[in-house]
Amino acid sequence: xxxxxxxxxxxxxxxxxxxxxxxxxxxxxxxxxxxxxxxxxxxxxxxxxxxxxxxxxxxxxxxxxxxxxxxxxxxxxxxxxxxxxxxxxxxxxxxxxxxxxxxxxxxxxxxxxxxxxxxxxxxxxxxxxxxxxxxxxxxxxxxxxxxxxxxxxxxxxxxxxxxxxxxxxxxxxxxxxxxxxxxxxxxxxxxxxxxxxxxxxxxxxxxxxxxxxxxxxxxxxxxxxxxxxxxxxxxxxxxxxxxxxxxxxxxxxxxxxxxxxxxxxxxxxxxxxxxxxxxxxxxxxxxxxxxxxxxxxxxxxxxxxxxxxxxxxxxxxxxxxxxxxxxxxxxxxxxxxxxxxxxxxxxxxxxxxxxxxxxxxxxxxxxxxxxxxxxxxxxxxxxxxxxxxxxxxxxxxxxxxxxxxxxxxxxxxxxxxxxxxxxxxxxxxxxxxxxxxxxxxxxxxxxxxxxxxxxxxxxxxxxxxxxxxxxxxxxxxxxxxxxxxxxxxxxxxxxxxxxxxxxxxxxx
Length: 508
Known about the structure:
This protein is α/β, with parallel strands linked by helices. 39% of the residues lie in helices and 21% in strands.
């Protein structure tokens, strides 16, 4: 059982309110919910829409067709009528958004009392909202039967990737977060500003990304656990400071939330084009880690790991996310495994110049320069050994399958849903290899790739950057014909991806 609803309208008309409201109630009823957001770079007006998918089993993505379109304006109906399934329903513009909440509850035969209870929790215009919802409920007809969930009462969490990053940072003992607003990293400012006084941490917006990165260094060398956040264009401005953290061996977490690029690109949409930027930005040779979560739980866990590595090895760590992961809401049925991170850095003397390790003073002595490089290179090996003790990759699907799909980051959801369907159609199924650590890279996957009959790459960019990393680190080449790439600044949809995978693997 799976159903999808598209909520569309202008910015300011309330599609987010409706989507969140329905999603939270469905979660309470024991259903699994996923919803994504698409919006233009406008404060008001334009066209925004969310797609909410719910099921009686785990769901991590949307499909290309929906059961209901909630059109908060005429433009939504024009644009999305083509996306309806056969016998799909359009709820046309004609009232305030709360009216449609009532209609949806009647259409899906949900108990109105659950909606009324949530509206009363809002605390604002309760009577007006309940009356509006009742009117919608009374004027709709029950038309879609959904089975009762078997998981009612199960401890399900409705969370997006940004909230996962925040959870991981707070649990790790974050002291300071600096950022300058840039979509899609901006929401983390709001998340970390919550309870900052009670939790004794600082969340501060500065005037630009250069100031952010340098303030991050300043806070870190006083012993504070520090993180900075931005998107690709802002990260460009931070790269000189990134090099300084490498030279000075300064622990600093960089939250890099990807969007359409290069340049301003497509500012409020998603892509995975910054992998090479994360791995290679900055001048010279220095250590860094690059970690890439695929869902909110992993976002929390890998942020927690980032603090561990940065503190233990005095090194910069980049947590690589994107707009789709950061702003989409997922249903998580297990809590992240988070550990306290020991603070190992105290106030001290740091230098962006090559420095004498005994005095901390700048030096041009050739023997000391060589020794410093040797020390940093030795640390790179130690980081690699330590990283191998963590889960650097995950295997999903049919673990003994000879057909492998490999990817990283937010593509995880669509791949899981796509191969789940294919697994039901073909007995041997498909193995999905998800890379979590992009630097240092888990080179031991080489033998797994070499033994496969076919390896398919799925990425939200135009060149297949993960394939470049795999070739560099293992020597394994993924042919162009085996790459499934989407680069229109939109996320993969599971039904379309399913067909692409079947075509590549010649599954009928």
